[in-house]
Amino acid sequence: MMKERSHSYWGNWQTNFMLRGSFEVPTTWDPSLPVALSLPLGDAGDYFPHPEALLYIDGTAYAACDRNHQEILLSDIYCSGHSHSLALHGWTGLGYGTGQPSTQLYMRPCEVVQIDQPTRDFISTARVALGSAEVLSESSPARAKILHALNEAFIALDTYEPGSPSFYASTTQAHALLRSALAQAGPPLAVDITATGHAHIDVAWLWTLGQARRKADRTFHTVARLMEQFPDYHFTQSQPQLYDYIRRDHPALFETIKQRVSEGRWEPIGGMWVEADCNLSGSEALARQFLLGRAFFTKYFGAEAESPVLWLPDVFGYSWALPQLIKQAGLEYFFTTKIGWNQYNRHPYESFWWQGIDGTRVLTHFSTTEEPGKKNSTYNALATPSHILGTWLNAQQKDAAQGEAPVPLLMAFSYGDGGGPTREMLENIRELDSFPAMPHVQQNSVKHFFETLEETSGPTLPIWNGELYLEYHRGTYTTQGRNKRANRKSEFLLHDAEFLATLAHLLDLTYAYPASTLHSAWELLCLNQFHDIIPGSSIHEVYTESQEQYATLKELGSQVCEEALEAIARQRDAALLVVNPTSFARHDLAFWPSSLEAGHYLYDPLSSRSKKPRDLDLPISPNTKLSRPQRERCGKLPGA
Asked: Whole-angstrom Cα distance, residue 24 to residue 20?
């Protein structure tokens, strides 16, 4: 299978690729043991410089592989001894962070492998035990007992010839000894951590929209395959825009997602069409984010499927108006990690009631899981003992729960921006369900976490009355000003288009309101308000594409305006129609690009004292608009 590429360097950075090969599972293998494909396509550096690929078996999309997901468990239908075609459609990665721009990917042998499950189970328990011993303090009574348990287990393990029948036979005994000794090491901490798998995908950032679309393909396929292996796996995913990509590109996968949603294992969350910037987006656009997002989830997953949480872990600050919008959108809670990135001041709470301008309050929680090697909060926990204990140790409100209730905390675990949670993460959480001296960890929904937090701590939590300002990413208020201008002009245009279309429909019942066109236009505008597009934090190619989309928006909005004006004009005997789409009287300077013929003039029919030409004190151009009373005042050109 692709043997010609093993132990070789291949590919160029930021390149789409297709690798082809075949595989066959030997009929002599033990049919009771799982079989998988091992696909170590390449790795170079730490910052997205790895290939990602969607795997097709016999022409059907099956699973995905990347640096963190190199093992793909095969269904029984592919283990019958027949040859199967293999195609990997992917992207080589960015090539950033390697320190050597000319570095290439190094492909190791790609193989069909068989898994000894008892050995893997032993490795999972031993990995968590060792990781726990490393993060527990030396004064912890459990630490010495855990180390003793590991020592006894590895004495029982036959390592004389690794991989031999005697080695595999000894893993079951070693695992039993390890678990028995760990049971004597003491109870877990009285801390409840709700763990939810999560795949934060920037719909544009260091890649374009098209690449993010394929990242969603790959990530969601990976989640679907892992859910088959781990019945307790719970996954949370925001951004209806990503779901819509899947619906269009992979309808079979979308049906699988719908099934998992109905089972309660896949949680649609977030409320908004995308995780939008909340400082630069206009007020109406923020409302549309909720309308579009919630309508999509309701249409495809059911009215009760969506979690009532505004999920914005990575947005660069949060407007003081959001609590009111959250409640009016029918949501109840708010979650982020980004305020944990503050440059100078740590926010005093991670669980509190956030009060908006109008007094509306929403229950809010910040992640307390720290990013590896940094002090920043993260939504990409690796579900290691270090991360799990750190989620508790980093919490400020350790007395938040009242009475005997354990302190509730939330941990979102994953590799972000392509891939999602891994098998190792899910194994770790399974082992840490009740582990000595460690927090109690269980997978569950974000909704369940917030309901528990409200029940155990709600009445005593503090109130934060004000915006949630991020002391970081300050340049995003001015960077890529061309895009910010196009965004605002597009917001104004869509407002005018809807006003005119509504007026045209009221005046002319034969005029068909262009609901589909306007819906598509708002989706496109909301997409470009994603928190790495409109703030200006993406690569150049993103803004080239964004300008093209703003041009499309202008075309769509202008077309609606023109058709609506024509419909309105047919109902009025006037050569010139002026409409003001705002809610206030206007006295701007007027501009009309053409000249009036001799004897023609503009006049106000309500001013009977004078028939001489007079200023309307209104902007006049082919697209100028005026409210109905002002339109009637405008009248027509005499002699026209």
From this structure: 14
Catalytic status, residue 277: no
CA-closest candidate to residue 254, choices 268, 264, 243, 239:
243
Separation of alpha carbons 307 and 446, rounded Å: 7
DSSP 269: -
Q: pLDDT per residue over 563-620, tens digit each?
A: 999 999 888 766 677 788 988 888 877 677 777 666 666 555 444 444 444 444 444 4
Q: Which of 56, 64, 63, 53 is nearest to 93 (CA)?
A: 53
CB neighbour burial string for 235-268, b if at least 16 within 10 angstroms, e if fewer = bbbbbbbbbbbbbeebeebbebbbebbeeebbbb
What are the helix (H) ranges across 116-196? 117-135, 141-156, 165-182
Q: What is the pLDDT of residues 298-327, one digit of tens each?
A: 999 998 999 999 999 999 999 999 999 999
Among residues 121, 249, 314, 433, which one is catalytic? Answer: 314
C-alpha Rg value of the chain to the nearest Å: 30
Rounded Cα distance between 582 and 440, Å, is: 56
**How many Å apart are CA 571 and CA 549, to the nearest integer?**
34
3 state SS of 266: strand
Nearest to 10 by CA among 110, 89, 92: 92
